[in-house]
Design goal:
Elements (H helix, E strand, L loop, with lengths): L5 E5 L11 H10 L3 E8 L5 E3 L15 H8 L4 E6 L5 H7 L8 E4 L2 H10 L4 E6 L8 H7 L4 E5 L5 H10 L3 E4 L4 H8 L6 E4 L2 H9 L6
Amino acid sequence: MTPGPLVCAHRGASAYHPDNSRAAFAAAIQIGADIIETDLRRSRDGRLVLAHDPLGAGTTEGLVELAELVELTAGRVALDVELKEAGYEDEVLAALDPRPAGLIVTSFLPRALAAVRALDPSVATGLILRPGRRHADPLARADGCGARAVVAHASLVGDGLCRRTLVAGRPLWVWTVNDPVRLAALMLDRAVTHVITDVPDVAIALRDAIPTSG
């Protein structure tokens, strides 16, 4: 088994292709990412599309739909679907039925995650923590919406959070890290279970360079 955290490609291999694009997703698969992270929104005509920024009144032509990504990744790579909005979690879960292997649903929005858990408690969820804010008890906040995973911005990751998640046996995801020095350090941190990055190839190379025990 390869040591170190799983590598999650942030919006696909987004350092090399437009984020949330078909090219970015295909490149992440080719690189060998363990997981692809993507942003989910609902268009005005009810389509579930992959876009980070709010959808305006203009056309959504060219955006990848969730169903297309599910088909592309099936049996090849796991999915981290970030809900950018709340209120249509039932539609999202319907589109993710049958559940892709390794699926996790994440969000900054506790109510969106709570809704997912209420609809299907078997779906893994993760609460995303914003940078620049004090999170007095991130584990308690995650527990409040039923999320087991803590998805922390890199600026929030210190000894305290790492120690607490490690002792609790909780998954700790760190986003978004592209600096090779920081990536290398995270690869050696026993508390970090997943690293989200725009450069999954760099992260994988650093992880592969970790000496195996025995």
